[in-house]
Design brief:
Blueprint lengths: L1 H27 L8 H23 L4 H18 L1 H4 L8 H15 L3 H12 L4 H18 L2 H5 L7 H34 L13
Length: 207
């Protein structure tokens, strides 16, 4: 039952990515700006992931440090998604709030590095870790490589750069959204797995 459930949910992730792209093409046009369905979906999924791990950090002392780090990581990605808005302040300004979040999270977990490492190691043993990593690879690596300008501009050199840029942007943003969908579903499964403390649990990490 769990395997079938996971297959259906991750299939839904692929359908969501395609569906949001379809809405942008049919309702918004070919401009994937900050108010597009794809961009708003990415930011919403990131925000939910952040809130889930922050809630785990609040409720579960035995996974608090790892949850803070993961929430901080997604928070930096969330800030990065608003780079075009933050560029209105200064080009590349998104880096400063992202660095601030990073510093706060690292400072918090620095008081007990050993517990933090143990908690992170336990997180990698979760059955949901593999899907989380798959989503991050899709977002941070696959979408960037598959969305390279060189690839798309030279695929049809006779077409205008503007047209091929739209194709490149659609492919890159669609791949990112699929990755965010994987991360969101993985986070939901992990939250459900961890929301109930184990019997006789304490503030100490799992061994």
């Amino acid at each position: 039952y769990r395997a079938i459930q996971q297959f259906l949910l991750y299939s839904l992730a692929a359908a969501i990515a395609t569906g949001m792209m379809f809405l942008d093409v049919t309702l918004v046009g070919n401009q994937l700006d900050e108010l597009s369905f794809v961009e708003i979906s990415q930011e919403t999924m990131l925000l939910i992931c952040i809130l889930l791990f922050l809630r785990l950090a609040w409720k579960r002392a035995d996974i608090r440090n790892s949850s803070v780090l993961i929430a901080g990581f997604f928070s930096c990605m969330f800030i990065r998604e608003f780079d075009s808005v933050l560029d209105m302040i200064h080009h590349g300004f998104w880096l400063y709030p992202a660095l601030l979040v990073t510093a706060i999270c690292l400072f918090y977990v620095s008081f007990n590095i050993k517990i933090t490492l143990v908690q992170l190691a336990n997180f990698t043993r979760s059955p949901n870790y593999g899907f989380m990593i798959s989503g991050l690879v899709c977002i941070l690596i696959f979408s960037r490589l598959f969305g390279m300008k060189f690839l798309w501009y030279n695929l049809h050199p006779e077409e205008s750069r503007f047209l091929m840029y739209n194709v490149k942007a659609a492919v890159e943003e669609g791949a990112e959204l699929f990755g965010y969908s994987l991360c969101l579903i993985s986070s939901l499964f992990y939250y459900r797995e961890q929301r109930t403390p184990p019997i006789n649990s304490s503030s100490e990490p799992y061994n």
